[in-house]
Each structure stands twice: as structure tokens, then as C-alpha cells.
Amino acid sequence: MGWLAVGVGGVGGVSAVTADGPAPLQVAGAVAAVGVYGAVMRRVARRTTPETARRGAVREALLGGGTGLGFVLASVALIAAFGGFSFAWAGRDVLPVVGSAIGASVGAAVIEELLFRGLALQALEQLYGARTALVVTALLFGGLHLANPGATAWSSLAIGLQAGVLLGAAFLWRRSIWFVAGLHFAWNATEQLLGVPVSGYPAAGLLTTDVTGPVLLTGGGFGLEASVVPVVVSVLLTVPMLALAHRRDGLLARRRGAV
């Protein structure tokens, strides 16, 4: 728990300085956060960090990005098929919009995954086992989004179920920060470019999204994360990920004597 506290303080400190800055600063913050994470793990936790290894990082990030892109597009397509979303070209300059989406999404994805999957999940896993760690980090991830604009108890629970559990399962399967950060990045960036609010924050994307129909279908003003559709889609991804993690002996059991 000592290295968890030090890591959260260090990575969280980087986030506090860079999170609200321009896109280049947010990307620089993500790079700095990886460095802080590695230093804490080596010097405080006294362990190596295969989860942030450079070898295979691009492959894992692309695989995770493809998973996140497919997840969001499938969820959006289903909502649109039921009449909940319709899209129109926003008429904005492409490069500034894409650059902003990439910067914000890289910063949020890398830093949040280092905090929740790199630090919290792995620390709790060592003490209480993978299943308990997955549940606790998912609840924490959802609960922290209660501070977002327009958040409700349902939106927080939905984020815990779809994002907290899915990203946790993805990490237990791949054991790679790059995979879960790629998934997280593609999720946020795709939403923003489509003009769908990202967890309560309006998105100035390449498209504008007209939302009609029940909030349970569309997520309303909070965005896709408050819709029941991605919750269902996430379950379809989470179950095979956990099965593959179990097959690879990636689900550690509770440590004896842990309290």
C-alpha cells in the first residue's frame, strides 16, 4: 500500500499540472507520468514494470485502440439504429479538432490507466486477489465520475460496469498498460470526434450529434457512458477477456493473511 500511495501522489501530481493545458502539454504529461510510474515501481515497489515495456508497446496500443474503436462504433451504431443518434458535419477545421481530441485523449487515457490499472488494481490484486481488485477499482472508477457535469447514480454505475470492469478485464488479460491506454484513448477520441459528450463534457467534434429518445437509450446530455447499450456491449467483451485471463493464469488469488 506504500508504493500505491506514492505512485498515486506522483502520477496524480503530473495530472494536476497538465490535465487542463493545451494538447502538447497533455501529451507531455502522459510521457512524464509513465516516467514517474516507472520510478516508483523500481525504487519503492522494488519490481520491474513489464506492463510498460517498450517491446511490443506499439502492437498492444494498436490492438487496444482497435478494440476501443470497435466498442464505441458498435454502441453508437446500435443507438442510431433505434433512432437515438443522428449526425451532421459540424463544419469545423479538421486539424485543430483532431489535434485537440488526440491530446486530451492521450493525456486522460495514459494517466488514468496508470492510476487505476497500473497502481490500484495491481496493489489490490497482490493483497486480495484479482477478482476483488477488479470490483473495487471498477467501483472507484465509476464513483469518481460522479463529479462530472450532469452525473447521476446511474451514470456512475454504468461507467463502473462498462469502463471500470472492461478496462480492468483488459489489463488482466493483456497485462499491458499500452493495451488498456489504447482502448481508453480510442474510446474517448472517437466519442469526441463524433460530437458525442464524453462523460458529461460537451465535445466539439468533426460531427454534431442530435440526441432523441429515452435517456436510458442515448445517455442524454451526459453522453454515451450513461446509455445501457455500451453496458451490454462491454459485457460481451469483458466475459471472453476474463476467460482468456483465467486460461493464462492471469487471475491471482487472494494472498493468505491479507486483511
* Number of separate strands: 2
Largest sheet: 2 strands, antiparallel
Strand line-up across the major sheet: 1-2
* Mean pLDDT over all positions: 92
Instruction: Work out the count of structural domains.
Output: 1
Q: How much of the residues is beta strand, in percent?
A: under 5%
Helicity level: 55-70%
Low-confidence stretches at least 5 residues in length (pLDDT < 50)?
none
CA-to-CA gap between the ends?
Answer: 12 Å
The gross shape turns out to be globular
Question: How would you describe what is shown here?
Answer:
- The chain is mainly α.
- It is 68% helix and 4% strand.
- The protein has nine helices and two strands.
- The model has no long low-confidence stretch (mean pLDDT 92).
